[in-house]
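Shift notes (night). Ran ABC transporter permease subunit while the centrifuge was going.
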Amino acid sequence: MESKHSVEKYVFQIIGYFFISLFAVMCLIPFLMIVIGSFTEESQIIRKGYSLIPNKLSFDAYAFIFKNPKQIVSAYQITLIVTIVGTLVGLFLTAMTAYVLQRKDFKYRNVFAFYFFFTTLFSGGLVPWYIMIVKYLGWKDSLLALVVPALLNVFYIIIMRSFISSTIPDAISESAKIDGAGDFRIFFSMILPLTKPALATIGLFIGLNYWNDWYHATLFINKENLYPLQYFLYRILSSIAFANSSVASQGSVVMDTPKESFKLAMTVIATGPIVLLYPFVQKYFVQGITIGSVKG
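Came back to this:
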């Protein structure tokens, strides 16, 4: 009887692994098509569409992007600086804010919690926000305009607050206070090490927001040496579309620029570093999204 149950267990495991592997392959195929399509000749994509097996390899899209390598390297540097600084500072502020809001001995925690939640429902509007950033703070053509506006996200604060309150007993903070530890010592030495799964998960989300951000650059950045990667690639794509439409409107032959393959190459360049980063935080990411169900 016991051997029968063990056989059934292995059968279900094999079936489960099979479907998980099949699902993983299905998720991987679109990404492979993007990578392969970026190395496919533009005419082949237009005539035959996207394929996992390119008929003719071409590096025109990457050659077009790296035609001026100094600009692309500068855009990468700006994006890396903004992403690293913004993620670290934003994660620190998010964790500290969440820790304060979940402290039962903080008298005004409900008032501040309502204030944060209120900002998710109402805002001052784009024009006052733009005037404040440009006129009063003077952050036009400054990296601060790319970092500061996205530092805090109320949704992440709520997640971190729930994580701390549900996984870290109050007795830990109380015992540390009895031993003479201050609030900052408790936060840095005890709270942060115990919140690694949540920090990794929220840090990944914050990093993705900064890495993919191009909207703030359209509003506040005019200098080319301060263009982030996403905005730089967006401008190249807009230039290609504008040049083709202008030439076509004049009745001339459309310029031979790799528009479709350029989009795919742009996706590969923009997502590559994030794809390489994910395996390092995967363990904490999985813990962070499953710990609630484990406790339940």
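Residues 2-38 form the longest helix (37 residues). The chain has 14 helices and no strands.
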